[in-house]
Structure prediction request, 470 residues.
Amino acid sequence: MPYTITDKIWEAHEIAKEDEFSLLYIDRHLTHEVTSPVAFSDMKYKGYKVRRPDLSLAVMDHNVPTDSKENPTIDELSEKQMEALWNNSRTFNVPLLDFYSPYQGIIHVVGPELGFSLPGLTIAAGDSHTSTHGALGALAFGIGTSEVEHVFVTQTLWIKKPKQFRIKINGNMKKGVSAKDLALYIIGKIGTGGAIGHIIEYSGETVSEINVEGRMTLCNMSIEAGARSAIIEPDDKVFSYIKDAPLAPKGQDWEDAVKYWKNLKSDPNAKYDKELEIDAGSVKPMVTWGTNPSMVAPVDGYVPYPEEVKDESLRNEYERALKYMELKPGQKITDISVDYVFIGSCTNARLSDLIEAAKVLKGKKVNRSVRALVVPGSEWVKRKAERIGIHKIFIDAGFEWRHSGCSMCIAMNSDRLPPGKRSASTSNRNFENRQGPGGRTHLVSPAMAAAAAVFGHFVDLADVEIAEVM
Prediction:
């Protein structure tokens, strides 16, 4: 039988099967301060130990303040959660990248950049966007609190094998179009439930051309289409990306690993439960207008008319979204002004994301009506950007140059969107109150966010001057 890449990794890790569920061995386990406390508490109560502390990595990311390392602004609940992770990591001997670690960052950024995440591995984390690691050719799952405990104690996970959904993307992307725009376009096309119960496998010429960090954006956003996970075949770009990472194999181990990884490809006649083909050349820079990522339009489009929607339930959703977002049907996307711009999150806070935004910002100034923040995905990304001078472009333009963390993506600390304010955000969710109570979020690419910061409203990137920064 021809196998997909998912089939190959699944079969290599399946220990047992009971009814529709498989017991998979988990190669790597990532955890953070929000979803781990209950699991650790229960393990203490039961007297359990972490089976393989060396295969786990704890990271402070959701609650960490990003304004300062010397005098951080932090609320009481955030401080307690960070302190709990620090204590639990010591108790259970789990390696920790704490607030002051030079490698601290968002788990889905630090995992790949450190080489903790590798092709062919099974990866689990108590975070929905764990699918990000699938860009390396790993099979990665977000898990719940009880499953976090199970992985800690047994290094295994009971899971029903998802169906498989191949999305082929071919064609040349237009000026200003990025992996984020492709992701939003796909979600707009299939809906937030279009991939429920499936692992999305991305393939095609366009995907091959996209850099590894762009592929991470595609895999990250797949969760917003309802997917259980996402994956892309590893190639030379992936091998180069992780080759010199601190935790990547070295010497002969590296050579042996690459030899194995090169076989992690779907067979030509492999079968999928669903398939979709996308012409990248037809995709324009995208902007969400509503309160979930499928409520999206091209930047040269307009806010839709609910009365044109036949489905009553969807029509009601549109009406509620427009009321919350304070937008009018027929309003041009380019007429939507913003108060805040946030460049960050596990979707778009890697070095290549910052470079794309800097290309738009170079020589320009942030509009006086806009407050703009850039939050690198890790302290390592921050240092790299500072070495090549990217941070100066942001600072000179009027952006706040922050330390790494989840920041305004989830607003669990002081980085929050005030009530009634509107943001252009490179994050992954635009639900009601997501970036702060009463805040209104528009999901966009890093380049679009940068342009919105300059003009004070959304603009077609085809009309924006793009500079070289390196």
Q: What stands out?
A: The chain is about 30% helix and 15% strand. The chain has a mean pLDDT of 97. The chain has three domains: 5-161, 163-233+266-282, 287-463.
